[in-house]
Amino acid sequence: MSYLSALRVSLNEKLLQLEESLESNLPHLLDASPYSFLDDAEILPPKLVFDLLEKIRVDLKAVDSMITPTRFKLVEMGMLHYKCAALNTAVVLNVAQAIESFGGEAQLCDLAMKCDVNEHKLGRILRTLTGEFVFVECSPDRFKNSRHSIALLSPGARSFISFITDLGMKCANGIPGDMVNPDTKHSFSDRTAPFCKMVSKNDQTFAEYMGDPKNAEMVALGNEGIVGWLNGLTRASLINDYPWEALGDAKVIDLGCGMGDSGIDVLKKFPRLSWVYQDLPSVIDNLKENFPDQLQPRVRDGQISFVVQDYFQSNVSDGDVWYMRGVLHEYDDNEALEVLKHLAVAMRRTPNSIMIINEVLNCSPFILPETSIAPPSEHIPSDQSCLPSTGNTMTWSTFSLFGGKERSLEEYEGLLNSAGFTVSKLYRFRTFTVMLECVLSSQSK
Ligand SMILES: C[S@@+](CC[C@H](N)C(=O)[O-])C[C@H]1O[C@@H](n2cnc3c(N)ncnc32)[C@H](O)[C@@H]1O
Fold it and tell me: A single GO BP annotation from the record (predicted)?
């Protein structure tokens, strides 16, 4: 069987399986409404469907790559930033809203008038996007929203696209230089991240830049876009794909809790848990001030508390579960080891305590043995995050903004073993992050 045939058969089988699994709730593409089964951030598809979707997408990419002439493949990839720019332009002009204001369909000339832009240029922006099924040209020069463009009515979605397009493109352009510059090539520090050269240009780190009152607009965009919208990519799986319920009334220590949103989500669903938020003083003050009213009674009865704690120092709290989201990836190995060693000391005070680490893993989208004619969907490694391509892109986005080192499972295991931990379980979330559950090696059975 040829490779093309193998892909055809694989896709046919998987699409049939998908149709059977979804029954009457089949996806749509062109209607200007979300397909809630996939587009509602609170709903997770069953694991079987989630895996099937990923496999189909991977095999479709293989077919696309197979039938695309190399020059076109490379040119299209090298010019992806124009697609980003088109999306951002549609966001800046709020074209989705403009279309809705005309009753759901609009002539190009009317849209151009409403957005106060040149009709010809707007047509080119829209057609760059209709090729991706973001907007639909339903008759010549007449446009409507699609399932994917209607989502741009959300202020959070627009904020994120605006935030990441400009910053992201500038920072991404700094990656090749970072990789070859002798001063930065082995650094994972926020001080040398591409952001410092390409955006702040005065060596201000991302955190320093965002703390500067003159960049308040950027901070607001980031908050609304990232916490308010992008986190929808991972929120449901954090709550549903880790067995929080089984922790009963455990006391969770949330190290480097930041804005505390992940703990807030978990606490709302699992009220028996106790939670200790730890971070640096200004972050803890901010969290206390903005903590949701709904959880205040549990603050008053001591079930939720706030502790100033530098995680590079001995930890003052005791707890059953030590939780870190997006902390270890901030650091190169030596610093990450330091944090972990302090935790190991603290955990020895509570027998059978565990540590849970929520991160993106560096992944292989697929590993294709030369002799195999099985489609790439059959060669996706299982001991890594799901959605490896999305995860890998996210790791570059965070690195180019604020440095940090994402790791593969193997790399985490090496680091954790040196600090006296054993990874006891890998929870693959229905998104691009995982939860690594760890115990002290001295207590592992
Ligand atoms: C990338 S953020 C992660 C925040 C949060 N865990 C989340 O997932 O949204 C890292 C957090 O670590 C905190 N942090 C940085 N250095 C720290 C230190 N030495 N001790 C404690 N927290 C620290 C920062 O203030 C920030 O809130």
Answer: methylation
- The verdict on the CB of residue 327 being under 6 Å from ligand 1 is yes
- CA atoms of 206 and 189, how far apart (whole Å): 11
Cβ of 316 closer than 6 Å to ligand 1, yes or no, is: no
CB 339 within 8 A of CB 310: no
| Any ligand 1 atom below 6 A from CB of 295 | no
Q: How confident is the prediction along the chain (445 residues), in pLDDT tens digits per residue? A: 899 999 999 999 999 999 999 999 999 999 999 999 999 999 999 999 999 999 999 999 999 999 999 999 999 999 999 999 999 999 999 999 999 999 999 999 999 999 999 999 999 999 999 999 999 999 999 999 999 999 999 999 999 999 999 899 999 999 999 999 999 999 999 999 999 999 999 889 999 999 899 999 888 888 889 888 998 999 999 999 999 999 999 999 999 999 999 999 999 999 999 999 999 999 999 999 999 999 999 999 999 999 999 999 999 999 999 999 999 999 999 999 999 999 999 999 999 999 999 999 999 999 999 888 899 999 999 999 999 999 999 999 999 999 999 999 999 999 999 999 999 999 999 999 999 999 999 876 5
User: What CATH number is given to the structural domain containing 256?
Assistant: 3.40.50.150
Residue 271 lies in a domain: yes
Tell me which residue has its CA closest to atom 15 in ligand 1: 256
d(CA 68, CA 72): 7
> Amino acid letter at 146?
S
Atom of ligand 1 nearest to the CA of 327: 10
- Distance of alpha carbon 115 from alpha carbon 93, whole angstroms: 6
Task: Give yes or no: residues 316 and 353 share one domain.
Answer: yes
In a domain? residue 171: yes
Q: Is any ligand 1 atom within 6 A of the Cβ of residue 262?
A: yes
State how far the Cα of 18 lies from the Cα of 58, in Å rounded to an integer: 15
Q: Indicate if ligand 1 lies below 6 Å from the C-beta of 280.
A: yes
Q: Give Cα 220 to chain centroid, integer Å.
A: 19
CA of 315 to the centre of ligand 1 (A): 15
Ligand 1, atom 26: closest residue by C-alpha = 258
Where in the sequence is the domain holding 411, given as residue range(s)? 237-443
Give how many domains the chain has, as a whole number: 4
| CA gap 239, 266 in Å, rounded | 6
For the beta carbon of residue 266, count every other beta carbon within 10 angstroms.
20
Given 180, 208, 227, which residue is the final one in a domain? 227
112 lines ligand 1 (CB under 6 A): no
- In a shared domain, residues 168 and 205: yes
Asked whether 359 lines ligand 1 (CB < 6 A), one says no
CB 266 within 8 A of CB 244: yes
By most ligand atoms within 8 Å of CB, the mutation choice from 284, 330, 341, 398 for ligand 1 is 330
